[in-house]
Design goal:
With 388 residues, this protein is an alpha/beta fold. Helix 7 packs antiparallel against helix 8, helix 8 packs across helix 10 and helix 10 packs across helix 11. The longest helix is centred in the C-terminal third of the chain and has 23 residues. The protein is elongated. The N terminus is likely disordered.
Length: 388
C-alpha cells in the first residue's frame, strides 16, 4: 500500500463541500435563464430573494475540516457503528464494513483520497480503507455498487487492482449500464480509475444479502428513485442505512432533485427510507451523517415543494408570455415553465407561505439557490407525468 502523506489539518478539499453553490451563486438571484419578456408585475422570477450561499447551523460540516477535525487532513474515516465505517472527503462518502473474514466496501468515489491542494499527495480508496487499525491484515472481499454513476464508483478499478478476486455486487440495471460503456471517454474526475469501471460479478433483481463472517448487509431495489439500479443498503444489526443521491442531511439536494429519473418514485423514497430500522443514515455526499429526524425533515422539504408546485401550476398569470412571443412558442413555453418554477420556489422559501412554515433558507444548505431547480423538475413532472 502507498504510504499516506501530505495531511493538511486546516485546509483541504473538504472546505469545498458546497463549492458548487458558491461557484454558481454569482447571480444576484436564484432563477433560471435571465429573461425580460414579461412585465415586472407578472414575473415571479424577478421577485426572488437574493442568494446568500450561507451554511446554516443545521447544515454545518461535522466533523469540520476547517477546525482540523478530519482524521487524515484531506479525508476523514469514522466508525459509526461497531465494524461499520464511513469515509468522506467532505463532498463524497464511501463506507466499509469490517468482519473477521475481511472487508465489504460500499462505493469507491474518485474524490475520496484526492488531495486538491497537493494532488501528488493523493492516495487511493484502498489507502483510505487501510488508514484505520481495524482493517490491517484483512483483504477486501466484497465491493457493492450503490448505482452506476462514476462520481460514486469511479475508483473501483483501484480496488480490483489491489484485490483481483474481489466480488463486485450490483443491481442488474447498474450492471447493464456499466456493461454498455465503451471506455472511449474519460475519466473526467481526478483520482479516477478505468472507465467504464469493472463489471459486477454478482447481480440481483429485487433483493439480496451480502454476508462475510459475522457481518451482513441487505440490499434492495425499489425502482428508479434516482437512477436505474440505485439501491438501499441496510446493515440491520448496526442500525445503518445507506441510500445514495436522494437525501443529504442538513442540505438541499443538488440541482433538479439530484437529476432524479422518476419524480413520483423519488418523492415516495422518503417514506421507503422511514420503513427501515436505522439510527444512522448515509446519503453519499458531504461530511454530515443523518438520523431519522433528518429524513423526516428532508421529506417535509420535498412535500413543501411538491404542494407549492401544484399551486404554481394553478396560476396561469405567466401565460401572458404566449401573447408576447406569438412567433416563438417554444421559447414562450420555456419562460412559462421557468416562471412557474420561480413561483414554486418563492412560496417554498417564504416561511409565511410554505405549508410547513419552515424557514428552509436558514435550515438547509443551498436551499436558497437550488430550490428553484427542484421546483422546475416537480412542475414539469406534475404537468406531464400521469403517474403523479
Amino acid at each position: 500500500m502507498t504510504a499516506m502523506e501530505g495531511s493538511m489539518p486546516r485546509k483541504s478539499l473538504c472546505l469545498l463541500s458546497f463549492s458548487f453553490v458558491l461557484l454558481i451563486a454569482h447571480a444576484s438571484h436564484a432563477g433560471r435563464a435571465p429573461q425580460n419578456f414579461l412585465p415586472d408585475e407578472l414575473s415571479q422570477c424577478r421577485r426572488q430573494a437574493p442568494v446568500t450561499a450561507n451554511v446554516p447551523p443545521n447544515g454545518a460540516p461535522d466533523p469540520d475540516p476547517a477546525k482540523g477535525e478530519f482524521s487524515n487532513g484531506f479525508f476523514h474515516v469514522e466508525e459509526v457503528a461497531p465494524g461499520f465505517f464511513y469515509a468522506t472527503d467532505g463532498t463524497f462518502q464511501s463506507a466499509f464494513v469490517v468482519s473477521r473474514r475481511g472487508i465489504i466496501v460500499i462505493d469507491a468515489p474518485p474524490m475520496v483520497g484526492f488531495n486538491a491542494l497537493d494532488p501528488a499527495a493523493s492516495v487511493s480508496i484502498v489507502d483510505v480503507i487501510y488508514s484505520v487499525p481495524e482493517t490491517q491484515g484483512l483483504p477486501i472481499r466484497r465491493l457493492i455498487y450503490s448505482h452506476s454513476h462514476l462520481d460514486h464508483i469511479g475508483q473501483a478499478s483501484k480496488i480490483v487492482e489491489a484485490f483481483p478476486n474481489v466480488q463486485i455486487i450490483a443491481q442488474r440495471e447498474t450492471a447493464r449500464k456499466i456493461n454498455r460503456g465503451t471506455g472511449m471517454f474519460g475519466p473526467f474526475l481526478p483520482n479516477s480509475g478505468t472507465v467504464p469501471p469493472p463489471s459486477p460479478t454478482r447481480t440481483f433483481l429485487r433483493s439480496t444479502s451480502v454476508r462475510l463472517g459475522e457481518k451482513q448487509l441487505d440490499l434492495s431495489y425499489r425502482g428508479e428513485i434516482h437512477d436505474p439500479g440505485n439501491i438501499f443498503i441496510h446493515a440491520p444489526r448496526e442500525g445503518v442505512l445507506m441510500l445514495v443521491d436522494v437525501l443529504f442531511p442538513g442540505s438541499s439536494q443538488f440541482t433538479e432533485l439530484n437529476v432524479a429519473v422518476d419524480l413520483p418514485l423519488f418523492v415516495d423514497a422518503f417514506d421507503q427510507i422511514l420503513r427501515f430500522d436505522f439510527d444512522v443514515f448515509i446519503g453519499g455526499h458531504n461530511n454530515r451523517l443523518g438520523t431519522r429526524a433528518d429524513v423526516t425533515e428532508g421529506r417535509l422539504y420535498v412535500q413543501d415543494m411538491l404542494e407549492n408546485a401544484r399551486r404554481a401550476l394553478l396560476d396561469q398569470t405567466p401565460g401572458a408570455i404566449f401573447g408576447i412571443l406569438p412567433q416563438n412558442q417554444l421559447v414562450a413555453a420555456a419562460i412559462f415553465s421557468d416562471e412557474q418554477a420561480c413561483d414554486c420556489a418563492n412560496r417554498t422559501l417564504d416561511p409565511t407561505r410554505t405549508p410547513s412554515g419552515t424557514d428552509w433558507t436558514n435550515r438547509l444548505t443551498g436551499a436558497d439557490f437550488l430550490t428553484v431547480t427542484h421546483c422546475f423538475s416537480l412542475v414539469e413532472a406534475l404537468r406531464i407525468d400521469p403517474s403523479f
